[in-house]
Every structure is written in C-alpha cells, then in structure tokens.
Amino acid sequence: MASYRPKNILITGAAGFIASHVCNRLIRNYPDYKIVVLDKLDYCSSLQNLLPSKSSPNFKFVKGDIGSDDLVNYLLITEAIDTIMHFAAQTHVDNSFGNSFEFTKNNIYGTHVLLEACKVTGQIKRFIHVSTDEVYGETDEDAVVGNHEASQLLPTNPYSATKAGAEMLVMAYGRSYGLPVITTRGNNVYGPNQFPEKLIPKFILLAMRGLPLPIHGDGSNVRSYLYCEDVAEAFECILHKGEVGHVYNIGTKKERRVIDVAKNVCKLFSMDPKTSIKFVENRPFNDQRYFVDDQKLKNLGWSERTTWEEGLRKTMDWYIQNPDWWGDVSGALLPHPRMLMMPGVNGSEETQSESYVSTNADKTRIEVPASISNGKHQPGAQRYQPVNCIE
C-alpha cells in the first residue's frame, strides 16, 4: 500500500485534548511537515496543550473559528494546505442537552464551511474528518460483534446527532465533488491534559480533593477507553495509510462499566468506594453500551499499546503534577456541568490568548480576514486585520 506524504497540514481544534496529542506527535516525528493549527480557544481548549510544539519551526497557531469562511479560505490558500485533520467540535454530551444549538453551529456548520473551502480551492489531497462511535447509537448488551464501519448510524443525543449530520456532509462532498475524504469514529479517549468535564479526569480531580465521585444512574453503562498516545498513533497511521472514501473505527474490545472506572480511581487514591461514590440523576438518555469493530484499522498496522492500568496511572500522575493546568474547574466537576456552554461563564479565552500568543507577538504576524471572531463578514469593514500567531 502506497503511503501518503502530506506537506502542509491544517489541524482544527488542536488546542483541545485529542488533537493536541496528534499535533505534538506529528511535529515531533515529521519535521518536514508544516502544521498550521486553527482553534478559537473555547472553554475546553488551552494553548498550554501545544507547549511541546511551540518552539518548532514547522508549527504555526492561528486563533479563529472554523465557521469563518473568509478565514478558512484564506488559510488554505496562503498556507498552501494540502491536508486537513478536522477535530474541532463541541463534544460533551451533557452540554448538548443544555445548549444543543451550539453543537449544530460548531459540528455541522463548521464542517460545512471547511468542506466548501476545500471544494472552492481544489487543492486538498486528504480531508480526515474526526467523528465518534456514538453515531452508531446504543449497542445491544448481548452483542458479541461490535459496530463495523458500514453499520447504520442511529444517534441518540444532540451531540451524536450533529456528528452524524457532519458525517453526511463529508460523505456527500466526497461523492458529489470528489473530495478525498476519510472519516474516523473513535471510542472514549483519556489521558493527560483532558478537560475535566469528562469522566476520568473529573474522577481523578475529585479524588485529589477528597470529594465523592458522582455517577449518572446506576453506573452499569459500559464504555471502551483508549489512552491518548495510542489514539494519536492511530491518526498518524490513518494519515499515511488510510484509503480515501473509507471509514475507520478507532477502538478497543476491552470494555468497562462506569462504576468499575470509579472503583479503579478509588483504588489508586486508597479511597473506600462504598463511601466515595455517589449516584446522581441520570442523563435524559444515557446509552448503555458502545461497541465497535476495530479490525479495519488493525489491518493498517495499528494496535493499542497502553494497558488500562498503565494509562490510568500515567493520567493520575499527570494531574497530580499539574493540578492547576485548567485553572478554576469547579464548574466542570459538577455532576451535570451544562452551564459551561453559556456565554461568559468561563472567561479564560482572552487570558489564554494573551499569555501564549503575545509572547511571540513580534515574531510572526499573519493577515487574516476581519471579523473572524464571530465568523461573519461585516460589509464596509476593513477586509483584513493583523493577528499575532505562533510559528
């Protein structure tokens, strides 16, 4: 199988969790690739996640929204982008019940803007769209074989519905316009620098504070977890060996009940699970199980390397060493942290932007379309404005 070799990669949402590990891995392993990151620095993103790449000559950061068609088109042309790895999305299911329109805007409209820019510029050789195993919907509890890449999509919550909708656009642009698209659908991912609204970092931070671990419902829900570096390696494999027009599950057959994850964290912190676990109101709908068939990706040469015990301990050690990475996350540690999606609740965006980007203010300036902050072009406004970037 011929290996694809990109030159200039645009990674969306790479100040977030999974994409930052992918970006840092590619920067580290492929100094001849130019990596441009586009991220609007939402509440669950941090420029600190990209610190390993900050000083690399083949790295550039641009603060902006994928919903800005002017900005996306401009970057594709001026940076000669030939490859897009599209991670940017709203991903927390709890938040999707509280502010579902934001998920439609980011996950569907944002993807549509990227696809249209690819069609217009006509220079993209790979468009890797990052989706989720949740688009398959709930797997039968007694199912022995997991969902494969051709399984029907039956999303059950606003988050997974918007990801499925985005997939339909990706597929349509691939078929109608011949865009070289690849889609991935992944299991849950955990590891260092994940925003603590997600289960494992939330449990670890609560345990560090001696607080009870909240579990939705009875904790019998089953999930599969992959360590972040294994997932970054999977994306490295798909980038180079994935076939255009194909879908790849990134998964593991090793499953765990949520109650068992909580007990494992309690054990790491020498806590009594009988007194440290608190059962709380369930989500409006909480899928009992997600289970995928990962054989297709294994056929490309990938396999998970990190055991659950090793990955969980590495994650715990990282949060103990970096307790203030995310600042005040008390809102995220609530059992149902939906308010984080409301405007003005988390005001870290400007602080992040200034603390990281301004350190390189005199080094690089790139002209980008005006009005990128809200993704709209304002008639009569100055067409371009300078934005400080990292290169």
Q: In words, what does this structure look like?
A:
The chain has 391 residues and is an alpha/beta fold. It has a domain of 236 residues: 3-Layer(aba) Sandwich (Rossmann fold), CATH 3.40.50.720. Helix content is 35%, strand content 17%. It contains twelve helices and 14 strands. The strands form four sheets. A seven-stranded parallel beta sheet has the order 3-2-1-4-5-6-10, sandwiched between helices. It has a three-stranded mixed beta sheet with strand order 7-9-11. The longest helix is centred in the N-terminal third of the chain and has 22 residues. It is globular.
Question: Which key features would you list for this structure?
Answer:
12 helices; 14 strands; Rossmann fold; 391 residues; three-stranded mixed β-sheet
Structure at a glance:
The chain is α/β, with parallel strands linked by helices and 391 residues long. Helices cover 35% and strands 17% of the residues.
Ordered list of secondary-structure elements with their pairings:
Elements: E1 8-12, H1 17-29, E2 34-39, E3 59-63, H2 69-78, E4 83-86, H3 93-98, H4 100-121, E5 126-132, H5 158-177, E6 181-186, E7 188-190, H6 199-208, E8 213-216, E9 222-227, H7 228-241, E10 247-250, E11 255-257, H8 258-268, H9 273-276, E12 277-280, H10 295-298, H11 308-321, H12 348-357, E13 365-369, E14 384-388
Parallel strand pairs: 1-2, 1-4, 2-3, 4-5, 5-6, 6-10, 7-9, 8-12
Antiparallel strand pairs: 9-11, 13-14
Helix pairs in contact: 1-7, 2-4, 4-5, 6-8, 6-11
